[in-house]
Structure to design on (548 residues):
């Protein structure tokens, strides 16, 4: 029987200079990690004329052959189990020429040494503790080192300046020995500037940071729906199955341990909410917390007043809620019970905004995900009726039809037995059905009072509003106002519009006047209330100069 086995082709070494060069930040973290794994508590970095020197106080190098053993880290079993080192080591510095001094030995690895040529290990007359590396590179300055040193847990000094060092998690973090980490849930306001910097320099939108002893990676986790939470996972050095993807070690490996970690994050997120004492979680997450043995208070009542709230202009007519009106006195729109459509929802909103009512009628919008909380159990609108008077004018306007009628009234029936009704100056016509008049979509009804009581944008909202596929908002708004003005002119007739234009012009005459007349030649005669009279003749043309 023929068998095969895995092997590493020697050609891989010939590509080492391209595999592990990376960025200066990548080289910094790899060298700092090596020093820490060797027991170093201090690392000193100096830059001088293009040469970088890195010196640590660790145990040093026992077997120099491990330096060029690609993939063979040589670390003890406990460290392998806790950190899963990739075995890249000083290969991160290839193809630079590197001199390494440690435990009375010295080697200089030149470019061909990275690709398989023998490298001599010599005695170092200047015996020293720890390890010293010298190589040419761009400057290892604070911008390259600080972020990789701040959470490393060791002292790092660059050109005589000690790098910042802060705890990755607080004393309140929960220790999970089986996962080899501490976990803390917090908000952005609780993070240090260095945490914020780590989030900014990693993938945009991620909400979790995992600290592998100074090497910080980010990922996106959403164990619960509250998006403002941040998750900090600090590896402790205990045996763990949590792993980074090789060789780059910049992403989490989606394995069984990571799945368990996400389950633990859900528990910690619910515990954070429990300690805080308030939340806006959907009801299913409230019951999920109960299943996990975490008792949460009910969600803070979350609703919007009115049914047509929108983040985009033009906005609908505003529905206001009296300050002393409890939520329990409000109503929800229930399309399943109402057997209605979008026009019913719009008319309920309009009745609340424009109706002349003895008692407050406030419809509120509550997301169905909150159904189950006691405060979401409100009486509902079960039927909407629209009474329409005689049509005075109908015309196509914007994206639909606008009709002016001499009477409009909206009546709402609710599940608690109330009937709310009132005349209004605006309504949305029901969608057409077989036995109904052939009203078009976006069919808006108004009475003549709408011209005085509503602004153009409040009517425009129900006729399609602004389209992002057309001109600018201001241009479209102006165009709609012109169309609406022409509609009102048709309603009152051209003579009435002429009269209104004249009166509008005369409003600027001071003092108060009784009578104004205009002759065919343009002479204006004004009789004021105090009895005085004023004549204003057209300006005469300048006399023609006939002199020679």
């Amino acid at each position: 029987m023929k068998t095969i086995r895995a092997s590493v082709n020697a050609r891989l070494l010939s590509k080492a200079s391209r595999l592990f060069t990376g960025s200066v930040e990548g080289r910094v973290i790899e060298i700092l990690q090596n020093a820490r794994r060797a027991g170093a508590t201090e690392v000193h970095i100096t830059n001088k004329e293009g040469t970088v020197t890195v010196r640590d106080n660790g145990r040093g190098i026992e077997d120099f052959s491990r330096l060029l053993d690609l993939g063979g880290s040589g670390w003890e079993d406990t460290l392998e189990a806790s950190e899963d080192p990739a075995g890249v080591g000083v290969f991160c510095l290839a193809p630079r020429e590197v001199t390494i001094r440690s435990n009375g030995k010295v080697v200089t690895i030149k470019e061909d040494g990275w690709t398989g040529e023998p490298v001599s290990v010599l005695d170092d007359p200047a015996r020293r503790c720890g390890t010293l590396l010298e190589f040419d590179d761009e400057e290892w300055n604070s911008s390259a080192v600080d972020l990789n040193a701040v959470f490393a847990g060791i002292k790092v000094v660059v050109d005589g300046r000690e790098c910042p060092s802060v705890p990755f998690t607080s004393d309140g973090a929960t220790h999970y020995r089986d996962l080899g980490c501490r976990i803390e849930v917090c908000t952005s306001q609780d993070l240090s500037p260095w945490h914020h910097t780590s989030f900014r320099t990693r993938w945009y939108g991620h909400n979790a940071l995992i600290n592998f002893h100074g090497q910080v990676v980010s990922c996106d986790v959403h164990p619960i729906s509250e998006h403002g939470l941040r998750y900090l996972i600090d590896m402790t050095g205990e045996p763990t199955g949590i792993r980074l993807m090789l060789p780059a070690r910049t992403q989490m490996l989606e394995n069984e341990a990571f799945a368990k970690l996400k389950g633990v994050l859900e528990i910690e997120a619910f515990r954070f909410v429990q300690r805080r004492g308030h939340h806006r979680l959907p009801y299913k997450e409230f019951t999920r917390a109960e299943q996990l043995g975490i008792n949460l208070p009910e969600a803070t009542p979350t609703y919007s007043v009115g049914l047509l709230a929108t983040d985009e202009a033009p906005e609908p007519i505003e529905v206001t809620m009296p300050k002393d009106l409890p939520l329990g006195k409000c109503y929800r729109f229930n399309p399943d019970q109402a057997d209605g459509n979008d026009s019913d929802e719009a008319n309920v909103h309009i009745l609340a905004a424009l109706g002349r009512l003895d008692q407050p009628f406030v419809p509120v919008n509550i997301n169905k995900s909150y159904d189950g909380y006691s405060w979401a159990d409100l009486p509902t609108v079960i039927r909407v009726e629209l009474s329409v008077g005689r049509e005075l004018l109908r015309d196509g306007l914007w994206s639909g039809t606008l009709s002016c009628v001499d009477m409009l009234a909206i009546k709402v029936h609710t599940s608690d037995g109330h009937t709310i009704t009132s005349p209004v100056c605006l309504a949305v016509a029901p969608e057409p059905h077989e036995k109904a008049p052939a009203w078009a979509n976006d069919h808006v009804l108004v009475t003549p009072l709408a011209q005085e009581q509503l602004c153009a944008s409040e009517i425009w909202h129900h006729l399609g509003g602004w389209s992002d596929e057309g001109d600018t908002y201001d241009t479209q708004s102006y165009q709609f106002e012109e169309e609406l003005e022409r509609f009102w002119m048709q309603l009152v007739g051209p003579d009435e519009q002429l009269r209104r234009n004249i009166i509008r012009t005369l409003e600027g005459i001071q003092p108060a006047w009784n009578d104004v007349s205009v002759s065919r030649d343009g002479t204006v005669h004004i009789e004021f209330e105090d009895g005085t009279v004023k004549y204003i003749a057209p300006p005469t043309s300048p006399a023609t100069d006939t002199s020679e």
Observations:
- The chain has three domains: 12-162, 174-291, 304-485.
- The radius of gyration is 39 Å.
